[in-house]
Every structure is written in C-alpha cells, then in structure tokens.
Amino acid sequence: MTDAAPTREDPLAATLSEGLGGPLGERAGRHPWWTPVRVLLALAAVVVALGMLQKAPCYSDTWSDSDARFSQMCYSDLPYLYTGRALAERAWPYSGDESLRERYPEVMEYPVGISYWAWGTALVAQGLTEGLGGLPDLAERRAADPGSLFGDAEVQREIRAFVIVNALGFAVLTLLAVWLLARTHARRPWDALWFAVSPALLLTGLVNWDLLAVVLVAGALWAWATGRPLLTGVLIGVGTATKLYPLFLLGAVLVICLRGRRWRELGVVWLGAGVAWLLTNLPAVLTGYEQWRVFWSFNSERGADLGSLWLVAAQAGDLDIDPSTINTASLAFFAAWCAGVFVLGMLAPETPRLAQLGFLLVAGFLLVNKVYSPQYVLWLLPLAVLARPRLRDQLVWQAGEVFYFAAVWWYLGGLLDAGGGGDAGFYWVAIVLRVGAELYLVALVARDVWRPQHDPVRRPLPPPPPTDVPPGAPAPVHESPVSR
Questions:
Q1: Which of 17, 88, 131, 327 would be a feasible disulfide site paired with 7, CB 3.0-4.6 Å?
Q2: 101-102-108 Cα angle (round to 5)
Q3: Cα(256)–Cα(221) distance, rounded to whole angstroms?
Q4: Residue 461 phi/psi, 5° resolution?
Q5: How far is Cα of residue 312 from the mean position of the Cα atoms in its chain?
Q6: Is residue 468 part of a domain?
Q7: Which domain holds residue 179?
C-alpha cells in the first residue's frame, strides 16, 4: 500500500512534474530520512522564513513609515497594538484599573486566546530586550502620553523583539499545523503540501494572530480523523476562545454524527468544546468582565468594513448602511447558508468529511460577514487543502487571495485612488474577484459532497505505471481510505 502522491493523482501536478523527471513511478525508492512529513516541514520552514523576509521593509524602520507599510505590503497589527493596548506597560489585557483605562480606553478587541498570547509574548520580548537586567522600569512610561510611546527608542527595540518573538512562535505553530494536517489522512500526507507552500500563508501569517486558531483547527481535524472525540471538542473549544470561527466545526460534527447516529461522540465533542471554552475564558471573566465583553460589543457595533461585500454595496451605492441592519442581514444570510449546508450534508449519498463541511460553513460566514480582513484566508486554509487537495483549484482560489492582498494595502495607501479623486473602483473589483475565487472552491467542494465520485480523497488511487506485469494480469487496485 503506497501513499497518495500528487504527481500520480493530480493532473496538473503530474504535468508540471514532467520537467523534473515525471510522475512518481512504481520503482521509486524511499529516502531513508526524507519522509513526506519531513519534506513538508522543510518546505513550510522556507515559506515561513520568506514570510518574515517579506515584512523586512517595515521591520527596518519599526513600522514608522506610513507609506512603506502599504506600498511594500508589509503591514502588521502587532507593532501598533503593542503600544496601543498597553502591552508596552505589561498591563493585563483584562485589567479594570481606572488609571490604566483612563490612559488606555481601548482594550484588546480579540477573544481571550489572542489576548493571553499577546500579553505573554510582550513579557518575553521585554525580558529579551533588557537581558539579565530584568524587565524595564515602567515609571517613565506611565508618566508619558501613551501616544508618544511608539516613537520612544527603547520601546521601538521592544517592538522589534515583540514581532520577532511572535514570528518565531508562529513558525512553530505553522510547522505543528503542517504535521497535524499531514497525519490527518493516513495515506495522504501530501495533501498538506498546499498548506505548507501556500502563498497566502507566506503573505498573511504575520499580519495578526490568526495562526493561533489555525493550528487548533488543524489539531481538531487530526483528532477527529484519528478517533479522539474529546480532544476534538477541547481543541474546538480553545479555538473558539481564540477566534470565533472554529465554533462552526461543531455544526459539521453534528451532521456527521446525525447521519451515523453517533450520539455519544456528538455529546463528547460538544461537551468538551463547551467546557474548554469556559475554562479558557474564565481568567478574563474573573479579572475584568467589562473588558472581556469588549470583543462582543466591538463586533456588534462595527459597520461595513474592509474586504466585505457590504463595503462594496455601501461605497458603490453611496449608502449609509446602519451596523444593526448589517448585523441582522448577515445573521439571516448565514443562517440560510448553514441550513443549506445541513441539508446538503444530510442528503449526500455518503457522509461528508469534516474538512468539507467545515470549509463550507466557514466560507459562508466570511462571505456574508461585514469585515473580511486579508489574513482571514488563514481561517480557510487548513480546511480547504483537505477538502479539495488539487493544485489547480488551490491556485485559482489563492490567486484571488493574493490579488486582494496587494489591492487592500494599495487602497489604504491611496495608491488606487481615481485620478479625479473619490473611491477606488479597482478595490471593489479586487473584493469581487476574491469572493468569486472563493465561490469557485465552494462550488467544487459542494459538488464533491453531492457527488462523492468527484472527491479526490474518496476516489481510488490510480495505479502506478506498470512494470514487468505479465500479459493479461489484472492491474492492482489502490484504495484511498477516507478520514472520519
């Protein structure tokens, strides 16, 4: 039994391999050390390193050049939130201290998992900057205007260290995600290749802290495929406490368990997720309930924002769409989308895979959401590469994401403004093309669910090129097992 090889079962990969010796043959030997997983980890390490290099133009001046961060597309939220959310003063994100909140009225607007990580890496960065001298004295900072801290020379050294510490942490998480994805399907480690070499991963990995949730989703996919329902639930719960979207995997688990009448597993996953979410949020709730609530109020009060179709409608139609209207309409659209995915999953000829249903649900949320930041592509990445592991389809989808990535920064930098002023219609085009590329992949995954014979993971592996086969002998059949 051989592993599925992209050059053997993926038509585009096979064609592109002709210049490198052609598709993998039956007599191809295995390297004693370079296993598929190690190759994938090495490729991912190169991509992560290139991602760090891509941010070098901004790192060199500590993100102080407001033009370069957009023209060079090296923007990151990390350096600005280091000073803007009191991390430079080592303030606990959920502190209700009146003097602190007077100086820093804006608190971390993310779920608790990200806040914990940001606070911890800020402490590490300050310790590394000070060396054996310990942590810096905060008296001067607390006496200064918070808005002036970003330009302070000592704080800028810490900002660079903060970005480095986070980048190294993200690198470890990325390698872990690749390892988990490569082991999700027992004989399909190469499906993780499209994650490991993803241009979207390279460009967006350092924009924000989204990779924290990505590795938890990858872990949940692996845990479910290997028969660990409790761990699946725990990882989904912690993931939801880090970014909201892993919650939607519970809907995918619901469909799978309903079809198979797997009531015990359904209960274990949902209970594990609920308990894990509560325990992860507990420190924040106990130390600063009002600050903990900011994530929920911030998102409800937000209007049409970058990357969303709502923004295109508001700007192109010159409309002033109230946030409450967007909230209601988005919820209605997403509820209808979830109902459609549920019906599709329940009526499909075979039980869909977790990655397929999870991808469809998360994609629906992003398509109707009122903000679609460039790094949100990472939410879909581990689900997409397992749902539809085909090079052509990954290239089409990620090409749309890369195009949007360039357009959004140039739009923010004023580089796409029309000659006579006004809104940049080119940015609207980029949003629509990005959505179109995503819908292309959504359509393929939905077709694979409805017609399982099109699913690359369910399809039997093609036999290797015949060698020394006696005339009339039947060709061997290479089955491709499907994960749970």
A1: 17
A2: 35
A3: 13
A4: -65, 140
A5: 23
A6: no
A7: 34-454
Largest Cα–Cα distance in the chain?
A: 88
Distance CA 179, CA 454 (A): 26
Q: What is the pLDDT of residues 172-218, one digit of tens each?
A: 999 999 999 999 998 899 999 999 999 999 999 999 999 999 999 99
Cβ contact 233:277 at 8 Å: no
- Nearest one of 78, 76, 31, 32 to 54, comparing CA atoms: 76
* Secondary structure percentages of the chain, helix, strand, coil, to 5: 70, 0, 30
Model pTM score: 0.91
Instruction: Please give the full DSSP string across 105-159, using - where no structure is assigned.
Output: -----S-HHHHHHHHHHHHHHHHHHHGGG-SPP-HHHHHS-GGGGGG-HHHHHHH
3 in any annotated domain: no
Structure tokens at 110: 């993310």
- In total, how many domains does the chain have? 1
Residue 1 lies in a domain: no
Position 481 scores a pLDDT of 43
Residue 280 neighbours by CB under 8 Å, 6+ apart: 112, 113, 237, 238, 241, 242
Contact 38, 32 (CB under 8 A): no
Angle between helix axes 354-368 and 323-347 (nearest 10 degrees) is 160
Q: What does the pLDDT look like over 232-263, one tens digit per residue?
A: 999 999 999 999 999 999 999 999 999 999 99
Q: What is the mean pLDDT of the chain?
A: 90
- Mean of pLDDT values over 41-60: 97
Is 310 inside a domain boundary?
A: yes
Query: Mind listing the pLDDT tens digit for each residue in 389-445?
Result: 999 999 999 999 999 999 999 999 988 876 656 667 899 999 999 999 999 999 999
Predicted confidence at residue 470, as pLDDT, reads: 45
